[in-house]
Amino acid sequence: MGAVFIDAGQAAQNWGDYHPAWAYGTGLRYRSPVGVLRFDFAKGNLVDKWRLHFSVGINL
Q1: Predicted confidence band at 27 (pLDDT cuts at 50, 70, 90)?
Q2: pLDDT tens, residue by residue, 32-51
Q3: What is the domain partition of the chain in residue ranges?
């Protein structure tokens, strides 16, 4: 299964200081016996580089 996403967020003490960082990317999802494997390739606006993210959702 494939995924396309846009993500935004940031932490701030008050709304006036809130300047969200954002990222966009694409990814693949695979349902394995140990859980969902996620491979995402994303680029953010604060760090102008592409990054690969990998995660495993363990089924309990």
Answers
A1: very high
A2: 888 899 999 999 988 889 99
A3: 2-58
Give the tokens for residue 20.
């969200």
- The torsion region of residue 41 among left (phi > 0), alpha (psi -120 to 50) and beta comes to beta
Q: Cβ of 16: how many Cβ atoms within 10 Å?
A: 7
* CA-closest candidate to residue 9, choices 42, 45, 55, 36: 45
Of 34, 25, 31, residue with least CA distance to 52: 25
- From 13, 5, 15, select the one nearest 44 (Cα to Cα): 5
Predicted model pTM: 0.66
> Residue 3 has which token pair?
């995924």
Per-residue tokens: 1:
């299964």
